Amino acid sequence: EAGVTQFPSHSVIEKGQTVTLRCDPISGHDNLYWYRRVMGKEIKFLLHFVKESKQDESGMPNNRFLAERTGGTYSTLKVQPAELEDSGVYFCASSLAGAREQYFGPGTRLTVT
Amino acid sequence: GNSVTQMEGPVTLSEEAFLTINCTYTATGYPSLFWYVQYPGEGLQLLLKATKADDKGSNKGFEATYRKETTSFHLEKGSVQVSDSAVYFCALEGGFQKLVFGTGTRLLVSP
Fold first, then answer.
1. How many Cβ pairs within 8 Å bridge chains A and B?
2. Pairing of the two strands B75-77 and B19-21
3. How would DSSP label each residue in A47-108?
4. What 8-state DSSP symbol labels residue A9?
5. pLDDT at B86 over 70
6. Per-residue pLDDT averaged across B7-14, rounded?
7. What is the DSSP string of B21-56?
8. Which residues of B touch A102 (CB under 8 A)?
9. Average model confidence (pLDDT) for chain B?
10. What is the pLDDT of residues A70-85, one digit of tens each?
């Protein structure tokens, strides 16, 4: 069974540009989460999808971040326009309905210069 | 709100030494507790978990016991190996399905 995959693994962009991160969850997992780790600090929750609906987006830092989950399958996280403080590692995770155990992808390292 | 506090790293040990990484938490209700590990160049992997007080999670020689009275979930291993070098994250899930993580503790094991 394939795990959670994320693309790209690393992205370097200039301040003001747009970047789109993609996450493919484990097949059959209704729950999809985005987290990020900035500057070696704690990993922080961004948002949670149940199928195609946003269940909780309380961790989204501001309206420069837009997350979508098309048809309840893969998800994208767009940052527009990117700022220096957006640099960090963005993790995606998924879980089965009703399960507390989340499976993480390898992360996307975003560097904004 | 919910929070997790981990000991600062890095923790540097020689092979076969005993490992303890401290983790304490603040939460309302009865959270589930987790340890995740990130090996160099890889993503987060679930190492072990405990879902109620006095539960002991274990995997790959690592253990952690859910202590409600001290709100702790310390990670231990009796004899570390070089291959255990990684960053370890303590986390809780407080019923709203989102994980709350500590800052991570880097473990460096030398031969």
1. 60
2. antiparallel
3. EEEETTEEEE-TT--STTEEEEEGGGS-EEEEESS--GGG-EEEEEEEE-TT----EE---E
4. S
5. yes
6. 93
7. E-EEEE-SS--EEEEEEE-TTS-EEEEEEE-STT-E
8. 46, 99
9. 94
10. 888 999 999 999 999 9
Beta-sheet pairing, B105-110 with B11-14 = parallel
Pairwise CA distance, residues B34 & B26, whole Å: 14
Q: A34: nearest CA in chain B?
A: B98
Provide the percentage of residues in chain A whose pLDDT is more than 70.
Answer: 99
Residue of B nearest to A46 (CA): B98
B89 — contact with chain A (CB < 8 Å)? yes
Judged by CB atoms closer than 8 Å, whether chains meet at B103 and A42 is answered as yes
What pLDDT is stored for residue A44 in this prediction? 95
Nearest of A88, A99, A85 to residue A25 by alpha carbon: A99
In single-letter form, the type of residue at position B37 comes to V
pLDDT at A91 over 80: yes
If you compute the radius of gyration of chain A from its CA atoms, what whole number of angstroms results?
13
Whether the CB of B90 is below 8 Å from some CB of chain A: the reply is no
Helix, strand, or coil here: B82?
A: helix
Chain A hits for B101, Cβ within 8 Å = 35, 42-44
For residues A96 and A48, what is the distance between their CA atoms, to the nearest angstrom? 13
Contacts of B43 in chain A (CB under 8 A): 4, 6, 91, 104-107
Tokens 């963005």 correspond to A90
